[in-house]
Write a structure and sequence with these properties.
Blueprint: H1 6-20, H2 25-51, H3 55-83, H4 86-119
Helix pairs in contact: 1-2, 1-4, 2-3, 2-4, 3-4
Length: 120
């Protein structure tokens, strides 16, 4: 259960040292805020998807949301890069990529441990 929100916690914890070491504040803020808002939306959508009985509809909603989330991340990175500076865009991209990597690893670990606990 602790792995469920590790990506969000790390984004918040890393903000201090990253900004203190000179990372662009606007880029970090845009990347971190976009990631956290997307994760909150993800949790809400996953709950709604779980209530959908039809498998095809569940899959369709899941795919549409996943694609929309990718577009939101891309737009956030572009806005940071064009609206402020290239360094802000790069920072936003790195924050999103780092948080995604942590989330992906945590999801994989949770999947494996759930499978093991159900097989035992």
């Amino acid at each position: 259960m602790a792995l469920l929100y590790l990506d969000i916690v790390l984004v918040l914890i890393v903000a201090g040292p990253a900004l203190a070491s000179g990372a662009p504040a606007l880029g970090f803020t845009i990347g971190g805020a976009t990631w956290i808002l997307a994760r909150i939306a993800s949790m809400l959508v996953e709950r709604r998807i779980a209530d959908v009985g039809d498998l095809r509809r569940r899959l369709a909603v899941s795919v549409v949301f996943s694609m929309a989330r990718v577009w939101v991340f891309a737009i956030a990175i572009i806005v940071a890069g064009v609206g402020a500076s290239r360094a802000d865009g790069l920072t936003a991209a790195l924050v999103i990529f780092g948080a995604f990597s942590v989330r992906f690893a945590c999801a994989a670990i949770m999947h494996v441990t759930q499978k093991r606990s159900t097989n035992s």
